[in-house]
Specification:
The protein is an alpha/beta fold. It contains 13 helices and 23 strands. Helices cover 27% and strands 24% of the residues.
């Protein structure tokens, strides 16, 4: 039987990337010629292309169309004529040509508009997101018949769609501001899943080629060794039932007490079974979501990627640079664009109230800045000040999204902004007698100090719970000598020509060698550039102390709509 289809990411209301060659693709299983025609709102042909395909088995076909300017109300027609002269046609209406971005990562990118601080007000408005459209890849981690049936039901949504409340909040606010600044429709492709490692979004060969990264594969192989596909599926299906019961129980507890702690919930309900057994059906397995989600939208023409992830790789912080940089390489190769922009969020303040401060998120943040410093067209958005006490899911998303969009405007769209779009980043340092003088990029106008009394109180209380005392002279800055013992540092901001400097010293360290700032998973954020953006956390040397391999278990409390 001859079959022909258009990939599910193409539907009515699709957004196609302006000013770029447009890839249109799908699947076919027999010799044919496929013709793709794009019409404007007056039904005049904007562009057309035909390509023959020779095959006796199902293949992924692709036809490219010429660059187009931004416009709305277009029509896309795809004709397939087989060798026996039989044909099929697909016509899509209300096509927009504008800007397209992929919103990738884990739960903080997945976090829904209806649940974020700013969401309810947006959703009350009939016009707020009128120039934003959204496509969500189906969140199914196993490719069976149900997968393909569900994928067929996926489609682009507009602000008139009921599904808008479940859009990524970060994706939505990024798209809304970009649509206003670029004066065109913006399409966001949601390709994210809470709790996932970056390894889930990568092709197997990219993990295999690196000894460190290959551990993601070997650990999975060891956990599933000797288990049949049927056994793995059964184990995961049993887990899903158990997990659903736990979440139902948690929802009831949460309704009674919105401040219920994870520990209290587990005492009442038993241990949360997330993330379930290693299984071919578990979406958190390495490479799993690459094949079930990402690969299904490749090579949809897109301007770039916004990314918010790193929490679930905190158990291997010292290889996150390799992991994330390799993932970027993987995606750029797949899209055949070695300059594909990545704008990503540096992990914000986070620590559960009962956890020790293992400083594993500090090292993830450090790896993220290294990506910013060394990978072209990859830019970091600092969000240290936007964490939420004892909650891995900060609910305020708009400011972070708009910081990301400001970077896109300046770096991707070449529209210089009035204020610096990047946070101050530590550039270099030198030792002068008993002081350390630090220099910073993106701080030419200097720094300012802000109070963060509430976070400070929370920090003190968490340390007290662990039997630790926060020094009275705590400033967030610390210095150490050759013994690598850190003490709180006094500090002074530079002035005039030296406005981009900060000088540190301590009476307890006569010969300083190391310095760091905000080297905690969660603590007060007090130093900002005059741009209003927080100083990025840093340390002057990765050799300043022992890096513990311990880490806190990430507690993925399900988001409950109020």
């Amino acid at each position: 039987m001859k079959t022909f289809s258009l990939s599910s990411i193409f539907s009515d209301h699709s957004v196609l990337q302006r000013n770029e060659v447009i890839s249109v693709f799908g699947y076919v299983n027999s010799n044919c010629k496929i013709t793709v025609t794009l019409y404007n709102k007056n039904k005049k042909i904007l562009c057309k292309n035909s390509v023959p395909f020779v095959t006796e088995k199902e293949i992924k076909w692709e036809v490219q169309l010429g660059k187009q300017v931004a416009q709305k109300d277009c029509q896309l027609k795809v004709d397939c004529t087989f060798d026996d002269a039989s044909s099929k046609a697909i016509i899509l209406e209300d096509i927009a040509i504008g800007e397209v971005w992929i919103a990738g990562g884990q739960s903080n990118m997945e976090f829904e508009l209806q649940n974020c601080t700013e969401g309810p007000k947006e959703l009350e408005s009939k016009k707020a997101g009128k120039n934003v459209r959204f496509y969500y890849t189906k969140k199914i981690g196993w490719m069976d018949e149900k997968f393909y049936e569900a994928e067929k039901q996926s489609c682009w949504e507009t602000w008139e769609s009921d599904g808008k409340k479940a859009w990524s909040a970060i994706g939505y606010f990024f798209g809304k501001k970009l649509a206003a600044d670029c004066n065109c429709t913006v399409g966001i492709i949601g390709c994210n899943w809470g709790g996932t490692s970056a390894s889930a979004w990568m092709k197997r060969e990219y993990l295999e080629k690196n000894t460190d990264l290959n551990t993601y594969l070997t650990e999975y192989a060891e956990a599933t060794n000797g288990k049949t596909i049927e056994q793995q599926c059964k184990e995961y299906e049993d887990y899903e039932i158990e997990f659903a019961k736990w979440n139902e129980g948690f929802s009831k507890l949460w309704e009674k007490d919105h401040n219920i702690s994870w520990e209290t919930a587990e005492k009442t309900l038993g241990k949360n079974p997330w993330p379930g057994p290693a299984s071919c059906k578990n979406p958190y397995r390495p490479c799993g979501l690459y094949s079930c989600m990402l690969e299904r939208i490749i090579p949809y023409t897109s301007k770039g990627v916004i990314w918010y992830q790193g929490e679930s790789d905190d158990h291997k912080p010292d290889m996150y640079y390799k992991l994330f940089s390799t993932m970027i390489e993987n995606w750029r190769t797949d899209w055949k664009n070695d300059k594909l922009p990545f704008i990503f969020v540096q992990l914000p303040n986070h620590r559960y109230q009962a956890d020790k401060d293992f400083k594993h998120w500090c090292r993830i943040r450090e790896a993220q800045q290294k990506i910013h410093d060394t990978i072209k067209n990859a830019w970091m958005t600092v969000a240290l000040d936007k964490g939420q006490f004892s909650d891995i899911h900060p609910k305020a998303k708009k400011v972070v999204a708009e910081r990301m969009e400001n970077i896109a405007l300046e770096k991707v769209y070449c529209q210089p902004q009035k204020k610096d779009v990047f946070s101050p980043l530590m550039k270099d340092y030198f030792i002068c007698n008993d002081k350390i003088i630090l220099t910073f990029d993106h701080a030419s106008s200097g720094f300012e100090l802000k109070k963060d009394e509430q976070t400070y109180k929370e920090y003190v209380e968490m340390e007290k719970n662990q039997g630790n005392t926060v020094p009275q002279d705590f400033t967030g800055f610390e210095i150490a000598g050759e013994d690598k013992v850190y003490y709180p540092a006094k500090f002074e901001f530079g002035k005039k020509d030296d406005a981009n400097t900060i000088t540190l010293w301590s009476e307890k360290v006569c010969q300083p060698r190391y310095a760091r700032y905000a080297w905690f998973n969660y603590g007060p954020v007090t130093v900002f550039g005059k741009s209003g953006l927080p100083l990025a956390p840093f340390r002057t040397s990765s050799q300043d102390c022992e890096n513990t391999t311990e880490h806190a278990k990430i507690q993925q409390i399900m988001t409950v709509a109020e």
